[in-house]
């Protein structure tokens, strides 16, 4: 069966029946298939029974290459953080598989999990809340060495290693014995990053790592993450609300809605030629620097609240808010949206969307200039693409 959602897109070439072939052998780091995280709920009252669960993450699939950055975007509550935590086994998956370096790591425990911690780490949004206020910076950054019982660094050399890490992330090594409250927000995020990279992980999940910081500090922290990635060849899953930050740092971007991936593509393709109606709305809200283009762009407003992940809409989960469904589609087509779940399918080279009626909208693109060539390639590819069996095995 053809395999979906590969890492390195091959812009320019026609979509292949087996897009997994576009991933260079040995480069694939993480493969996620049908990953679900449902939170069980109990009813209120005297006799408490199990109610329908919160479907926070509901069947996501993607690949990630070594050294690659996948941006994860979507409005609040769509499941980005839960997806990140489940990937790292901080939450137990409800279903699906996670393969890391070719090994199925879904639900690992004990020593295997401890070993995995040295390979996959997390950078949190709130740099203060994630640091123990009673521990010195030295012990916070040095903790992974103790927990992992690594032979890499022992005894006194932990201090030396921590200080060189501090220097590497832009902290003064002489502040080894200071406490978190003695640092600014940006410095605290650097401490969080130093702790995360202490054991040289191959994968970092960065959950809104700059959202809590001043704009001027955000750029410094993003630059630091980019430098560290180049130096240590780490792959990132980068969760953020700010689409400009995501565009800057990501190689590819996945757009989530109600626990599912709606669109996944190369960063430039997604920003220049978004295909899914939900992505159209997100992109239309990103300001572009050219004022003439800005005044011509349509601003697509989504009407209504995000539906409950306990009881998501039938068929396409986006149909209750989809502008195309509401304003453009015929009754017959609408019926399809309401009854038939759209799989995340290859629509053009390296470009996946979960929509029965995708449409390239470069008129609301958020990428300056890059649009034209990409748009032409995709428009041609959409017409010519022949996807065997309708779906690609998700
Ligand atoms: N422990 C939990 N128990 C029950 N429901 C939860 C739990 N954690 C998250 N949820 C629910 O799962 C859904 C996804 O939450 P999540 O925090 O992953 O979203 P998010 O995309 O990261 O949002 P934000 O952008 O606000 O951080 C939400 O409806 C949330 O209320
Ligand atoms: S499948 Fe239908 S409802 Fe869903 S995004 Fe596409 S057009 Fe909109
Ligand atoms: Mg979150």
Radius of gyration: 22 Å
Biggest sheet character:
8 strands, mixed
Small ligands present = adenosine-5'-triphosphate, iron/sulfur cluster, magnesium ion
Element string (H = helix, E = strand): EEEHEEHEHHHEHEHEEHHHHHEEH
What are the salient characteristics of this protein?
394 residues; Rossmann fold; 8-stranded mixed sheet; 4-stranded antiparallel sheet; 12 strands; 20% strand; binds adenosine-5'-triphosphate; binds iron/sulfur cluster
Structural overview:
Helix 3 (137-147) crosses helix 4, helix 3 runs parallel beside helix 5 and helix 5 packs parallel to helix 6 (215-232). The longest helix is centred in the middle third of the chain and has 18 residues, at 215-232. This protein has 394 residues and is α/β, with parallel strands linked by helices. It has 13 helices and 12 strands. Helices cover 32% and strands 20% of the residues. It has one domain (19-275, 344-384): Rossmann fold (3-Layer(aba) Sandwich), CATH 3.40.50.300. Strands 6-7-8-3-9-10-12-11 form an 8-stranded mixed β-sheet, sandwiched between helices. A 4-stranded antiparallel β-sheet has the order 2-1-4-5. The model is unreliable at 6-26 and 369-394 (pLDDT under 50). Iron/sulfur cluster binds next to helix 11.
Quick summary of this structure?
The protein has 394 residues and is an alpha/beta fold. The chain is built from 13 helices and 12 strands.
Fold topology:
Layout: E1 28-42, E2 50-65, E3 69-73, H1 80-87, E4 95-100, E5 103-104, H2 110-119, E6 120-123, H3 137-147, H4 156-168, H5 185-197, E7 203-207, H6 215-232, E8 235-239, H7 243-249, E9 252-257, E10 260-266, H8 267-272, H9 277-284, H10 291-296, H11 323-327, H12 331-339, E11 345-348, E12 351-353, H13 371-384
Parallel strand pairs: 3-8, 3-9, 6-7, 7-8
Antiparallel strand pairs: 1-2, 1-4, 4-5, 9-10, 10-12, 11-12
Helix pairs in contact: 3-4, 3-5, 5-6
The protein binds adenosine-5'-triphosphate, iron/sulfur cluster and magnesium ion.
């Amino acid at each position: 069966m053809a395999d979906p959602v590969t890492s390195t897109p091959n812009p320019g070439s026609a979509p292949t029946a087996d897009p997994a072939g576009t991933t260079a052998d040995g480069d694939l780091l993480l493969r996620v298939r049908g990953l679900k995280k449902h939170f069980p709920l109990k009813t209120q009252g005297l006799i408490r029974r199990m109610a329908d669960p919160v479907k926070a993450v509901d069947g996501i699939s993607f690949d990630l290459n070594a050294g690659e950055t996948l941006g994860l975007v979507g409005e609040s509550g769509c499941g980005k953080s839960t997806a990140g935590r489940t990937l790292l086994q901080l939450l137990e998956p409800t279903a699906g598989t996670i393969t890391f370096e070719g090994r199925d790591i879904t639900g690992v425990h004990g020593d295997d999990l401890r070993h995995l911690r040295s390979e996959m780490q997390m950078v949190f949004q709130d740099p203060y809340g994630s640091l123990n206020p009673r521990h010195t910076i030295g012990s916070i950054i040095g903790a992974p060495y103790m927990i992992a019982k690594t032979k890499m660094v022992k005894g006194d050399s932990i201090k030396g290693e921590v200080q060189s890490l501090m220097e590497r992330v832009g902290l003064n090594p002489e502040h080894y014995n200071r406490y978190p409250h003695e640092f600014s927000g940006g410095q605290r995020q650097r401490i969080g990053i130093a702790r995360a990279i202490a054991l040289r992980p191959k994968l970092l999940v960065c959950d809104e790592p700059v959202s809590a910081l001043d704009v001027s500090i955000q750029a410094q922290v993003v630059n630091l993450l980019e430098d560290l990635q180049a130096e240590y060849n780490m792959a990132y899953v980068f969760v953020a609300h700010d689409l400009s930050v995501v565009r800057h740092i990501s190689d590819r971007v996945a757009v989530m809605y109600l626990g599912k991936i709606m669109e996944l593509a190369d960063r430039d393709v997604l920003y220049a030629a978004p295909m899914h109606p939900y992505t159209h709305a997100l992109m239309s809200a990103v300001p572009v620097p050219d004022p003439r283009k800005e005044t011509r762009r349509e601003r697509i407003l989504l009407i209504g609240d995000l539906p409950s992940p306990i009881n998501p809409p039938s068929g396409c989960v986006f149909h209750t808010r989809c502008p195309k469904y509401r304003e453009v589609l015929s009754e017959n087509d609408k019926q399809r949206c309401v009854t038939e779940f759209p799989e995340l399918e290859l629509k053009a080279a390296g470009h996946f969307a979960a929509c029965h009626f995708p449409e390239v909208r470069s008129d609301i693109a958020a990428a300056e200039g890059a649009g034209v060539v990409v748009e032409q390639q995709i428009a041609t590819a959409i017409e010519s693409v022949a996807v065997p069996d309708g779906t690609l095995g998700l």
